[in-house]
Design brief:
This protein is about 25% helix and about 15% strand. It is of the alpha/beta class. It has a domain of about 150 residues: von Willebrand factor, type A domain (Rossmann fold, 3-Layer(aba) Sandwich), CATH 3.40.50.410.
Length: about 290
């Protein structure tokens, strides 16, 4: 009885053929997956499916070997220092160095030429109306000497003259036991007349007694519209008040300035006098 199994060598040949066929098929499939070799033409499918529209694709590329990384350029912050200020041509350098240096800012305006130097004293009045005649009755008795009362009173007269315009007139009567006047008649308030008054006031001295009536007698000859008495009023009594009131026979406004004194508690004879002529009393303390 014969055996039905093929010979051993035949089976081995068949297995080798099958193996080669399988490897050939695997190779062809791998080539097709890579797109095929170059120059295959229409036999190779070159269609590539891209990503959907909603898919973001990233492509990673290797940096070239010769590329060098350079550090970013430094960023310079903007300067906060303000630009230097330049001075106008008419301004000079600081007068003195140091933290308290004084820098000139220009010349101060010159004072009016007709304004006398009165040392900061306040005026007795404002600017009178045009055509007004103002007379100052200045006590220069010995009691006005201590503490420079006469000098202070003269400075108040200077300040008051500074308020006058050339369309007004003025006269100054200084008295102690007797009275003297600046000029024979009232002067127009010009710069020259004010300079003349300044020099005359500087020549006065405080001496002698007080004859208030003599001062007012000369003052009334100037026919004043306004009268200003400057005194320390240390000896003005009721008899003086009556005598002065009797000399004033024309409409006039009488006011007074009292130096080195304070307003008393009661009404003084001087306050009663000026009250009769619509005036007031100013007190200049020590």
């Amino acid at each position: 009885m014969h055996s039905t199994r093929p010979p051993r060598r035949g089976r081995l040949s068949a297995a080798v053929a099958v193996s080669l066929s399988l490897h050939a098929l695997i190779g062809l499939a791998w080539l097709n997956a890579r797109g095929g070799p170059s120059g295959t033409g229409a036999d190779v499918n070159v269609d590539v499916d891209g990503p959907e529209d909603h898919v973001v694709a990233f492509v990673l590329r290797d940096r070239p070997a010769d590329a060098e990384l350079k550090p970013p350029a430094p960023v310079t912050p903007p300067s906060t220092t303000p630009p230097p200020k330049t001075l106008p041509n008419d301004l000079g350098p600081p007068v003195a160095a140091g933290p308290r240096a004084i820098v000139p800012i220009g010349a101060s305006p010159a004072p009016p030429p007709d304004l006398p130097n009165f040392g900061g004293a306040r005026s007795l009045h404002g600017r009178p109306k045009a055509g007004t005649t103002v007379v100052y009755v200045l006590d220069r008795s010995a009691s006005m000497g201590p503490d420079g009362l006469l000098i202070r009173a003269a400075n108040v007269v200077r300040a008051s003259l500074g308020e006058l315009l050339p369309d007004t007139r003025f006269q100054i009567v200084a008295y102690n036991a007797v009275a003297t006047s600046l000029a024979p008649r009232p002067l127009a308030a010009t710069a020259e007349a004010k300079d003349q008054a300044d020099r005359w006031l500087a020549s006065l001295t405080a001496e002698g007694g007080s004859n208030h009536k003599a001062g007012f007698r000369d003052a009334m000859t100037a026919r004043p519209d306004q009268l200003f008495l400057l005194t320390d009023a240390d000896d003005l009594d009721e008899s003086d008040v009556r005598a002065i009131a009797a000399l004033i026979r024309t409409p006039v406004r009488l006011s007074a300035a009292v130096f080195a004194g304070h307003r008393p508690a009661g009404v003084t004879p001087l306050e009663r006098l000026v009250g009769r002529f619509n005036g007031s009393v100013q007190y200049f303390g020590p």
